[in-house]
Structure formats: structure tokens, C-alpha cells
Amino acid sequence: MDKFVVRGGNPLLGTIKVSGAKNSALPCMAAAILTEEEVILENIPQVHDIETERRLLTSMGAEVELGYGRAQHRTHIKCAILSDPVAKYEIVKTMRASSLVLGPLIARTGIARVAMPGGCAIGGRPIDLHISGLEAMGATITQDHGYLEARADRLKGAHIVFDKITVTGTEDLLMAATLAEGESLFENCAREPEVTDLAALLVAMGAKIEGAGTATIRVQGVAKLHGARHRINPDRIEAGTFLVAGAITGGDLNVDCCEPKHLGALISKLEQCGVKIDVGADYVRVRSGGELKAADITTEEYPGFPTDMQAQYMALATQAEGTSSVTENIFENRFMHVQELIRMGANITISGRTATIRGKTPLQSAAVMCSDLRASASLVLAALVADGETILDRVYHLDRGYEHFEEKLRGVGAQIRRMGDVFGKK
Question: What is the pTM of this model?
């Protein structure tokens, strides 16, 4: 099991490039199920979740080619025949996005059997909104031995108001509605850039969608979709993680190939913390503005402060003068990194959904455990400013969502290396 070894103390200097968004790529790969023709996706990140999705689609009978390097992170997907419309547990147990194939499978084949989703242990991501929405569209869904089984001759358009804003629920039902009979109207939809990215692909495939990126989406179902070529959005969470890395180390870091419009809440908060920021068309530069200042955050659905940046921001808050509060409103178990930060010297207390961070505290190296994807990133950020050499275990969590993370950081001055397990595995 691989580990990271990080020696703190170096400011990050230079330019770091952002990869494609995992959370856009996964639903876009699932959308390829909706057509017999080839779908080509560009700017696909080289992360473990993408490989899991490839295995999932291949197990169903799809032809999937992943290309990196000279192929410019491109994937070709052709679902001409879906001989086995089952999302098997042994494949999807480490990936929460497995529920995203439920809607496209039943819309395309009339039948789907999908294992209940896995992934990070950060709290429940209820699939009941997927189920109730598909049932409203005419599907019959049962649960049996950890699997959801769905059947429908053809889905029918429906008026659905989401009880709670859900990104994957919005994406799943959006895909299902493209092949449904008649019109679907969805209200209280997620507005995340990943939803807009998926909708752009679906429109390129021939879907009729209005309102993506707003709270109300209208879909006119069509009989058939065709192939398309689409470029995945830059990863706003990877970009945000690097912005915090530059800020926490007091560096001068240019985060390139990103979409600044997707980073508004984080940029505003970093400026409130005293970080100097320059924004260009496709880059954001962070520079030290002197001592960091405390500022409070509350995680919210987009365009609010993203839950996927909460852990990274908390690492930054340990180095800010004053008291910061971090309130987590999206996932109930997303403070699992706190005890590890405390082991490194952070002064953090938790009351319910709010963490109080008192800074500035000097962090010390320690052996720490990564519990989920974003917690892993926060511990790396803390290690970048800790005294001595920190060892991070279970970095496979981080590999699920960040492409060549340690290599990118090394390129801008971080002292970080990957170490294999006792058997020398790399």
C-alpha cells in the first residue's frame, strides 16, 4: 500500500496545470450508454475512478479505449451492444458514481441491475432521489441483495421536484429523460458545472435540454441519440486544492488550464484571508500577501463554497491568525481529517457540524492516515508546512481523484515522494 513522504518548508513557485474534472468525466462516460454510436471524450483525467468506470462499461459489453499522453487524455466509448446491463459490486464498491449508470441503462435497454454505490466514507449520498424520480417516470424498481433492479418498457416524461439538491440525482434523471417519451420538467436541480458539462455532451448527442446550470431543467425526450465528441471541463476541485497549496506555503503559484468562473466562492474566501490573487481567462495566480487571516466558511451547493474544498481550507485555517469556523452542511461524516490534523499540532474542536480552528499553530510532522479523497489532499497541504517529514498512509484515496498529484507538486518545489509498501510495490 503506497504512502507519501512529505518534507515541509518549501514555498510553491511556478506553474501547475489542472487536469480534466473526474466528476464531469464519470457522468459523461455513463452517458455513452445512451447511444449505439461512438462517443469521444477529451481531457479525461488519469485517475483510478476513471479506470473503474472503464471496467464497469466494459463488463456490460461496451468497447472502451482509454488513451493518455499523445492521445491527449482521450477515451473512445462505443456501447453498440450492452449484453450484460449490470453494475457489479466487485467493480463499483470503491466508487460512488456507480448510481449514474442506472438512468441511462434503463432508458436505453429497459432493464438495469446496479449495485448500491460505494466510495469514500464521508456520509450518506442517498439514492432514494434517483429511485423516486425514475419511478415517477414509469420504472419499476426493487432492491435485492444489495442491488437495485429497474425495469421499464419506455420511460415517460414527468414533473419532478427534488426534495434536496442532488448532483448525481440531477445527472442520472437528466440522462434518463433524454430518451423518455414526452417532456420532463425538473425543479430544484443541482447547478454545478459538472451538470452543465454533462448537458453539453447530451445536447451534442442530439438531446433537447433547456436550463442546465439553473434550478429548473426542461427535457424533451427523443427516440434516439447519436455519437459525439466532447471536451471535459477542467477540475475545479483540483484547481482549488492547488490554489490553497500556493496560499498555505506562502508561494507564488500560477494554476493554469482552469476555469476561474467555477472558483468564485473559493477565490473570494482566499482574498478574505489576505491572499493576493490575479485572475486570467484560464488561470488563477496566488501570491503571499503576508500573514494569513482567519475567515469562516459554510459549505453549500454550487455556487456556494464546495464541500469538496472544506478539508483543504481547514488545513489553511490552521495557519491563519485568529479563529475560523468551518460548517459542513452537505455530508455528515466529513470531519474525518480533523483528528489527523490535531495529531500534527492543529488546534481544532468540533461541535456538531461546525469545526472551530484556532491559529496560527505550528504543525509538526507525524505519521497520518488518509480516510477519504479530499481528506488526503488536506493532509498533504498540512504536511507542506509542517516541521520535518510527514508520512501519509492509504494515499490510494487520493489516487481516485487527482492525476499525478505528487509529480505536479514536485514540479513547483514541493518535497514529496511516493513510497511503496514493504514488498516494494510502486
Answer: 0.94
